[in-house]
Amino acid sequence: MSEHQLVIEAGRGEKHYWRDLWRFRELLYFLSWRDILVRYKQTVIGVAWSVIRPVLTMIVFTVIFGKLAKFPSGNAPYAILVYAAMLPWQFFANALSESSNSLISNSNMISKVYFPRLIVPCSAVIVSLVDFLISFVVLVVLMAWYRFLPSWQILLVPLFLFQALVAALGFSLWLSALNVKYRDFRYIVPFIVQFGLYVSPVGFSSSVVPEKWRLLYSLNPMVGVIDGFRWAILGGDAQIYWPGFLLSNGLMLLILGGGVWYFRKTERIFADII
Amino acid sequence: MSDTVIKVENLGKKYILSHLADKREQLFSSLLVNKAKSLFRGGKQMLSAPLSLHSPSNSRTEEEFWALNDVSFEIKQGDRVGIIGRNGAGKSTLLKILSRITEPTKGRITINGRIASLLEVGTGFHSELSGRENIYLNGAILGMSREEIKRKFDEIVDFAEVEKFLDTPVKRYSSGMYVRLAFAVAAHLEPEILIVDEVLAVGDAEFQKKCLGKMEDVSTKQGRTVLFVSHNMGAISRLCTSAVLLDAGSVKSMGTIHNVLQNYQTHCITSSCNWIRPENMSNNLMFKFISIGVNNSQNSSLLSFAADEEVLIEIVYEIERKLTGCQVGVRVTDSDGNIVFTTADTDTTNNSAFQREPGKYRALFIIPGFLLTPGTYTLTVVAHLPHRTVYEIIEQAVSFTVTNTGWVGVFDGRLGAVSPRIIWKTSICE
């Protein structure tokens, strides 16, 4: 009996929270599974959507930045340079757009059933992760096309993927929780995503940024993630700018920590205000 | 250790009703705009106030509301407890706190045992997914593990009677099938404490019986504790052994089901099946209602009627000066606030220029039996010149409850907004 004792009191959700989160881990799986299943229902080309979007953007960026503006790309083909950055960026952007609305679109569940609410934005991030894996296949095709052989560093991609995951989760927690209370974020997020594509080094290598601005530039946490991906995939010339990389990472952890804190703080009133 | 499984102590839940902005959707931008406006308007003293979400400029439009206040009770292992009370008494809030959907503002609840709550059937069902997929999804949402669902899968499908449609998206299900499937998943949860809200109000009569039976099973054979909220007094008295009566956020009475139900009825009779003009009520010059009462055919005040009984409504009013064209009307609404019908004393006189001399009047009308479905009905009474002047209106003056007839399987539990008894003529043909 005592194993299941539960005390409900004002301001006392904490005690069982992390244990509950573990207990509900299958729900995380089922929610992601549901979103993946439902995602491309009633679409004609289905999963191809998750390939077409990054590929088209990649072509546009290659033409504009590579061919017209003639930015340097080192020894790698410009298309691969862009695509290597497009992967984490798309993942990040998708995760943000999906998760910021996730609590609202699951509001009926939130007002009718108890479960650790963290599961909802997390599952949205996982759905974006699946898209990422699909688009990754395209990278392999692209490398074969250009006969580009990556070095051993490509084995470190999972590490940088984890970094992207931390960044996406951190922002997602903030945005999803804020969106419950202030629906303005429904309009802010598409803007962040659109704007971020241009201020992050997706279409160009971050080495084109003048040295004295690099550290400031690294305040954008995606700079560190994208540089990491480029380094791992392109190898050779692509360099990681270490002070900036560390700054990006530190910032990301801070955002994630803050996100968890803010989410946990506001979670208890979700059902009242959603 | 005692066998108390739920112990509620001094529980309270406060809501802030904000009249400033729509409570459900608060726009950050409008918050900023308001803040800016008040800065300009308030001048110096506002500038010194902190720019917080609860600055004094907002507080005058915010109102505290205690949905629950100082609620305490205990529930023992194996009890089947009904939670009753009128709309807005705090039943749903209590359930939401017990199921951990929302937090209390004060007080404490101690629960011993695995708890599951059903505040709605089919939470999280996705219309694009098939029946099979939804069973897994809904099970996970209710807190079952994949293993557990797999083990009970056949039983669930059996109970819901949907084997043929397992791979059809539930959006193509009939509403009956949908509800059956949803309840079936929930019914196979195995918590030590089960909390159920009004979910039996859906589905056809036969299925309702099945659900009630299942819940009784869960409680008597397996010794589980059940908390059941319903407006259906018939279902409550059949299923529950004890009850808690909530009124305006606090516990009015608790104890055995019989006592509490009686208390509920008498408590409501004094407050709502008879309306008598309060002494301090302002008088208008033309028209005043003196009393409004709900009676049965034996002319005694009553709150509860079987669906086959007549309901007598008596309205006493006084007119101070001669009135032409006045109509006394009654609007009957159900517990969801839907208007069931409207009737007026001019319906049968056919004379809209009905003249009334000064004096005291007594009006009577009968709501026939075999018309209203079980539920609670509220009467609003008005005296007016149609489309022109309202002399007096008594909103929600009285209310009464219509219960099942007791003719189980013949008349009770029918679907529909009304339940008239219609004459059928059946004869054998050659």
What count of structural domains of chain A? 1
Query: Tell me, what's the shape of chain A?
Result: globular
Poorly predicted residue ranges of chain B: 20-25, 42-60
Q: Work out the radius of gyration of chain B.
A: 26 Å
Strand order of the largest sheet of chain B: 5-6-7-3-8-9
Quick one: biggest sheet of chain A? none
Shape of chain B: globular
Determine the structural class of chain B based on helices, strands and strand pairing. alpha/beta
Q: Structural class given helices, strands, pairing of chain A? A: mainly alpha
Looking at the chains present, what oligomeric state does this protein adopt?
A: heterodimer
State which percent range the strand residues of chain B make up.
25-35%
First CA to last CA of chain A: what distance? 34 Å
Helix and strand layout, with pairings?
The complex is a heterodimer of chains A (274) and B (430).
Chain A: E1 5-9, H1 14-23, H2 25-39, H3 49-68, H4 78-105, H5 107-110, H6 119-145, H7 157-181, H8 185-199, H9 214-217, H10 221-234, H11 242-267, H12 270-273
Chain B: E1 4-18, H1 28-48, H2 56-59, E2 62-76, E3 80-84, H3 91-98, E4 106-112, E5 115-118, H4 131-141, H5 146-160, H6 175-187, E6 193-197, H7 205-220, E7 225-229, H8 233-239, E8 242-247, E9 250-256, H9 257-273, E10 274-276, E11 287-295, E12 304-306, E13 311-319, E14 323-324, E15 327-334, E16 339-344, E17 355-356, E18 359-367, E19 375-385, E20 389-403
Parallel strand pairs in B: 3-7, 3-8, 5-6, 6-7, 12-20
Antiparallel strand pairs in B: 1-2, 1-4, 8-9, 10-11, 11-13, 13-18, 14-17, 15-16, 15-19, 19-20
Helix pairs in contact in B: 4-5, 4-6, 5-6
